[in-house]
Amino acid sequence: MSVSSQTMEAIIEQKSNRISWKTIWNYNTGIIATKVMQTRTCYISTMNRSEMPTFAALVRVAAERRNLINLGRPSRRITFVTNGLVSNLSSYGAHVFSMCSGLPTYRAQEVQVLLGLVLNPALADQHQQTEVSKKISIGGAYQILTINRKWLVASIEQKSNHGSWKTIWNYDTGFMATKVLPERACYLSIMNRTEMPSFDALPQLAADIRNQNHPRAPTKEITFTLVRRIIRDLGSYGPDIFYTCRGLSTYVAYQVQGPEFSLGSCIKLDALQYLALTYCHNDNSV
Predict the structure, then answer these.
(1) Over 70: is that where the pLDDT of 220 sits?
(2) Global pTM?
(3) Which terminus, N or C, of the chain has the lesser number of Cβ atoms within 10 Å?
């Protein structure tokens, strides 16, 4: 950790084989910026001064930690959800710009955690944007639902030890994209609005999950066959899909129905315990 009394900044960096990161706390501007090396991503948020140590206390905290063999668990925790991309990185100062330049940089907004559900009540009440996270399996997986009412875009992201994925539904353009991290692949398709939940129904689906005592099977399923195809202009699908899929193997996913289709290996993703997205490799097409 390094501390600058001149700029009122503290920089904390961790390097390890498991995960490496760097965070900048600017007590002058009240801004936090964190870079996660493994995902090559930056997050910028506003400081919660009531939960974070004061600037004067940082040197003392660092000295105390050096005298400990086992650091133990943190005494405080702040949970954030992403809330769109940062458009003007230079406005956050030279150190943040230098650290995050060239990386996808997201605004991160603090949320309150209650019974495993992360909810931003202010955004929900204003009907601008709702972001929730709900643990839905015993294996430790949880899903984050993000709704952008301005752009009519919803994303559902699941993180777990067994496999993580993210799907983006653009209700404005009618396109959807799903990124599967174990395969380092992205699947592009046209939304089936008949089978998929409406945009306005998504907050209620998240609320229904909170009220359930046990996980349930999805009530609907859409099956796709995958065709490997070069997407020459990924940006035409919108910034959310572009940043999700860039640098990954991209497939076009076509919906199929009926047993007459000979499908190869498949992967099934459970979105909000409502819709199962099944993607199958067709050996004759991929």
Answers:
(1) yes
(2) 0.54
(3) C
Q: What is residue 87's DSSP assignment?
A: S
What pLDDT shows up at residue 257?
77
List the chain domain ranges. Answer: 1-114, 117-286
Query: Which CATH code is given to the segment(s) 1-114?
Result: 3.30.390.150
CA 111, chain centre distance (Å) = 14
Residue 106, exposed/middle/buried by CB under 10 A (0-12, 13-18, 19+)? buried
pLDDT of res. 178: 95
The strand pairing partners of 21, in sequence order, are: 14, 36
Contact status, residue 143 vs residue 117, Cβ threshold 8 Å: no
- Residue 67's alpha-carbon distances to 64, 91, 193, in angstroms, are 6, 38, 59
Structure tokens at 74: 């943190």
Q: Is the pLDDT of residue 34 over 90?
A: yes
Q: Is residue 202 within 8 Å of residue 145, measured between CB atoms?
A: yes
Encoded amino acid at 236, one letter: S
* Residue that is written with structure tokens 């959310």 in the block: 240
Is it the case that residue 150 has pLDDT exceeding 60? yes
**Rounded Cα–Cα distance for residues 72 and 241 (Å):** 39
Q: How far apart are CA 102 and CA 104, in angstroms?
A: 7
DSSP assigned state of 258:
S
Indicate if the pLDDT at residue 216 is higher than 80. no
Left (φ > 0), alpha (ψ -120 to 50) or beta: where does 258 sit?
A: left
Q: Are 160 and 153 in contact (CB under 8 A)?
A: no
Q: Does the pLDDT at position 1 exceed 50?
A: yes
